[in-house]
Design brief:
The chain is about 40% helix and about 10% strand. It has about 300 residues and is α/β, with parallel strands linked by helices. α7 links the parallel β4 and β5. It comes from Patiriisocius marinus.
């Protein structure tokens, strides 16, 4: 059974007019249920992750500043959120959803998190709507508990996973792969183990050709025993914070290919949603729900 992390705190409401589409975290589970993609039994509710687990990745001074809501204006501006206790709490539940998802993926091949993909969070600061890095913390947890020995992070959000790249820069057990818009945020890129920068307006054909020629070779080279997949849908044409030209159909084909490849090689995969900023919320929800359709098709309905 496909297991999906969701907690009511995910849908925390930002001040009116904020550009981050928090509504998607409420609307997506509703659509999955309405369309029969999932049932209530697919969902599990994460708990609050421990500070000890977070501090395997995040700097203690930064973490304590988050808990105390004592970051300065410059740090908060960089984060992009009006810092609130509820947002800090929310980040803890998202991380636990990703960690527990890893455990379900080890059993079932795959698991999903309605939120997460907070790849702009560095060890010692947050950026671009990311406070704490859920997949980085979960990856270290797997290594610490010896549930994995070699991890591949496949980041297909339109923005480079700069925080993740920085965190694992000197960690040989984690290979970071980011395929993103070359001219998009972050404008000063970190160095992943493999970066592929795409031109503006890159279409489905070119996007999928590059991905399909890259990912299988990476699996042969890296030999991972666990994969994290960041399935951002901000690769869509017209996305407010993206610059690529992919269609909804191309985005779903991307997800199907990633899942087919993971399953073919019997490598468990944890999936976090990442970005999606299309002008119409319905497009964001449809594209994200297609990721769940793809997972169900490849792993449970094949």
């Amino acid at each position: 059974m496909l297991k999906i992390a969701y907690h009511p705190i995910y849908k925390y409401q930002l001040p009116e007019g904020h550009r981050f589409p928090m509504a998607k975290y409420d609307l997506l589970p509703q659509k999955l249920l309405k369309d029969g993609i999932c049932t209530k039994t697919n969902f599990f509710e994460p708990s609050k992750v421990s500070a000890k687990t977070i501090l395997r990745i995040h700097d203690e001074i930064y973490y304590n500043s988050l808990l105390e809501v004592s970051l300065d204006r410059k740090e908060i501006r960089k984060m992009g959120f009006p810092l609130r206790n509820e947002l800090v709490e929310r980040a803890h539940y998202i991380i636990d959803g990703t960690i527990k998802g890893c455990e379900f993926a080890l059993q079932n091949g795959i698991a999903m998190n309605i939120a997460g993909g907070t790849h702009h969070a560095y060890s010692s600061h947050g950026e671009a709507f990311c406070l704490l890095n859920d997949q980085a913390v979960a990856a270290m947890h797997l290594l610490d508990t010896k549930q994995a020995t070699k991890i591949l992070i496949v980041d297909l959000d339109v923005h480079q996973g700069n925080g993740t790249a920085s965190i694992f820069e000197n960690e040989e057990r984690v290979f970071t792969f980011s395929m993103h818009g070359a001219k998009n945020y972050p404008f000063k890129k970190e160095r992943s183990d493999l970066d592929i920068g795409l031109d503006d307006k890159t279409s489905d054909v070119e996007y999928l050709e590059i991905l399909k020629s890259t990912l299988p070779k990476l699996l042969t080279k890296v030999q991972p025993d666990f994969i994290f997949y960041l399935s951002g849908v901000d690769i869509l044409e017209g996305d407010k914070l993206g610059r690529l030209g992919c269609s909804i159909e191309g985005c779903m084909e991307r997800d199907l290919f990633v899942f087919e490849t993971c399953k073919k090689h019997s490598i468990p995969v944890q999936v976090s949603m990442g970005g999606g900023y299309s002008p119409k919320i319905d497009i964001i929800i449809e594209a994200h729900s297609n990721t769940y359709k793809a997972a169900q098709k490849i792993y449970f309905n094949g």
